[in-house]
Structures are given as C-alpha cells and as structure tokens.
Amino acid sequence: MDNTILYISSRANSGDSVLDALKEKGYEVVTASSPTEGVALLYVFHPIVAVVLGKRAREQAAFDVAQSLKQIRPNIPIVELCGEQTDGSSSRTNECVSTDKIASALQYLLAAESAA
User: How many structural domains does the chain have?
Assistant: First the structure.
C-alpha cells in the first residue's frame, strides 16, 4: 500500500510538529511550501494517498486549495488544519488537537478508504 502524504504548509520543515508526527506514524511525506507548489506536486507524485493543508492559511484560501486539488484527484482525502473561528479570530490547531491525534485520524481515514 502506498503511504505518501502531501503536506502543504508554509512551515513544512524538519522542525514542524505535524510533519514529525506523520513521519513517526510511518508515512512518507512530500512537502510543499505553497499551494501552487502543492498542486504541481500532486500532478507529479501519483502515489500520494492524502493531503494535509497546514494551519497557516486562512479558511477561504484552504478551501480554494482543496477545490484545486479535488479537480486533479476528486477522491483524494484532504485534512485541513487551518481556519477561522466564527468570531473571526484565528484558530489554534496545536492548542485544540495534538499532532499525534491528527496523524492517527489520518491513519484511520486511510484505512477506511482502502477497506471500501
């Protein structure tokens, strides 16, 4: 089974806790520092099984990126780690959900997708 994740984040480097958690769960991770680079990588790396959008983008930008990715691969699972609260304040993903839980949820999602 392929286990390559595309991680799009302006902070996708070796010190990123989400990146580290995905690698600890055994995923091969291809990183993109911008949505444009991420879309291009999705064309190039066909074994990508899911996309994780980093928490630095605003909700509308993440939604637009997700729509672009879905045009390329309509069935690819996408996990967005960003957004805004309904009151307009920025969400703080690390304070709400641990990176290990994000990686575990992604693992569960992919297992369900492969079983279907």
Answer: 1
Tell me how far CA of residue 27 lies from CA of 21, 44, 83, 87, in angstroms.
9, 18, 24, 35
Greater pLDDT, 94 or 61: 61
CATH number for position 88: 3.40.50.2300
Is residue 104 within 8 Å of 26, Cβ to Cβ?
A: no
Give the distance between the most distant pair of CA atoms in the chain. 42
pTM: 0.73
Using alpha carbons, select from 39, 26, 19 the residue that is nearest to residue 102.
19
Structural domain that includes position 89: 4-115
Encode 47-74: b = buried (16+ Cβ within 10 Å), e = exposed.
Answer: ebbbbbbbbbbeeeebeebbeebeeebe
For residue 74, pLDDT beyond 60:
yes
